[in-house]
Amino acid sequence: METLDKNKESKGKKRASKRDPEGSRQALIDATLDTIAEIGITDTTVTSIIKRADLSRGMIHLHFGGKDKLLSSAAKYYSEVYYAELEKSLKHAGGDPEAIIMAVVRTDLGPNLLNERSAKVWHAFRGVAHSHPGISEYSSTQDERLKGILQKAFEHITREHSVGGQLSARQATFGTFALLEGMWVHFLSDMDGFSREEAVSLIQKFLSGMFPGHFAQD
Amino acid sequence: METLDKNKESKGKKRASKRDPEGSRQALIDATLDTIAEIGITDTTVTSIIKRADLSRGMIHLHFGGKDKLLSSAAKYYSEVYYAELEKSLKHAGGDPEAIIMAVVRTDLGPNLLNERSAKVWHAFRGVAHSHPGISEYSSTQDERLKGILQKAFEHITREHSVGGQLSARQATFGTFALLEGMWVHFLSDMDGFSREEAVSLIQKFLSGMFPGHFAQD
DNA sequence: GTATTTAATGGACAAGCGTCCATTAGCAAC
DNA sequence: GTTGCTAATGGACGCTTGTCCATTAAATAC
């Protein structure tokens, strides 16, 4: 019998075999996101990426056609992971609009989506988006999907209880979204002082102020 | 009599004479901010900056000691301009806490501070701050000063009317700040659709929801 | 086994980067 | 004028960047 470790995906991160195009592709994307989070997007070079992925120089050109396209693919992947997590959480939320909104808030501020690596990558991508169409595309898609979910839920609430002078669904979406983005920024500038519970509770207070009778605190 | 234009600071941007260290310094800072806003911080190189400032290669090293220090100086200058505008507006606001808070909100979202160039520069700086201590310093200083002003005003309000279950001054500051940051992000992603009035009004509604009896809408 | 296919390698390359400094030139003092 | 000071110039430098491709080697088909 032979040794059974070493060559069989033992660590979960290593590629399956020496020839594994799909694995190499993903390894490059992961290494890109790691590098951006660790040393910043300005210092993220082809060399720093392939060093971290433990692959050879030519792989980026081979699998993505260039550094720029790798960055776009990494942004796309990041956005997909974000949205997958959100949808997973929404499946357990049921159909109640309030529950949906609070599930979005809780998930967006939860440790799976809002953590050091993720927040740094998000921030870096947003910072360069304006001069990088490939990245811009995916981060604005992510925003629009999130806003879409919120707006649909808020529309239900405003329709049910048409409470005269209150906020429109559009404004409520706008405000909630801004608060969430602000929380991410805050998290980055003070990770130790940040409290997820407090952030969720604050948004909930904002919502219950805007929609009296709804979003009651525990 | 001689011609009186052409060589006497006529355009306000040109340097006063061919030898003007202070003017050159400022021209480099302005060119840096312009370049960042136009082509992004990633593509902002020594060459692109000196081309825009219409100065020679050596000037960056001469006046700032290197590109990195020029960037830090540009961040510092940006922050100073922001804060000067804010203080100017606060002088007219009087001593009333509500008026101070609303003046901060209106100024932060006004065209002098929130415009295309300014927002793009701000975004770019924040995106690289984590791997660039010189920039990080000034953008966090700016944040802290703004939060300080808000918190002091909110403390007055919470002290006067100690309305039991309401928001603490810290939370109100947190929420207002997050909303403002969110508005800037929103402005960047949809400049045409953005309405300053709506943004101000939304924050005011948030505040009047949190502090019933205060921040009454017009 | 051999042939075929293609993932992966890593060095060569030109272009571009930021830094530096010997030189030039503008202004003030005399 | 001449001198002294220093702002300003712009080319040379070494280094790093991203791209590309001839070569190697792993897996599959026969």
From TrEMBL, chains A, B:
<feature type="region of interest" description="Disordered">
    <location>
        <begin position="1"/>
        <end position="24"/>
    </location>
</feature>
<dbReference type="InterPro" id="IPR039538">
    <property type="entry name" value="BetI_C"/>
</dbReference>
<keyword id="KW-0678">Repressor</keyword>
<feature type="DNA-binding region" description="H-T-H motif">
    <location>
        <begin position="45"/>
        <end position="64"/>
    </location>
</feature>
<dbReference type="InterPro" id="IPR001647">
    <property type="entry name" value="HTH_TetR"/>
</dbReference>
<dbReference type="Pfam" id="PF13977">
    <property type="entry name" value="TetR_C_6"/>
</dbReference>
<dbReference type="InterPro" id="IPR023772">
    <property type="entry name" value="DNA-bd_HTH_TetR-type_CS"/>
</dbReference>
<protein>
    <submittedName>
        <fullName>HTH-type transcriptional regulator BetI</fullName>
    </submittedName>
</protein>
<dbReference type="GO" id="GO:0003677">
    <property type="term" value="F:DNA binding"/>
</dbReference>
<dbReference type="InterPro" id="IPR050624">
    <property type="entry name" value="HTH-type_Tx_Regulator"/>
</dbReference>
<feature type="compositionally biased region" description="Basic and acidic residues">
    <location>
        <begin position="1"/>
        <end position="10"/>
    </location>
</feature>
<dbReference type="InterPro" id="IPR036271">
    <property type="entry name" value="Tet_transcr_reg_TetR-rel_C_sf"/>
</dbReference>
<dbReference type="Pfam" id="PF00440">
    <property type="entry name" value="TetR_N"/>
</dbReference>
<keyword id="KW-0238">DNA-binding</keyword>
<dbReference type="InterPro" id="IPR009057">
    <property type="entry name" value="Homeodomain-like_sf"/>
</dbReference>
<keyword id="KW-0805">Transcription regulation</keyword>
<feature type="domain" description="HTH tetR-type">
    <location>
        <begin position="22"/>
        <end position="82"/>
    </location>
</feature>
<keyword id="KW-0804">Transcription</keyword>
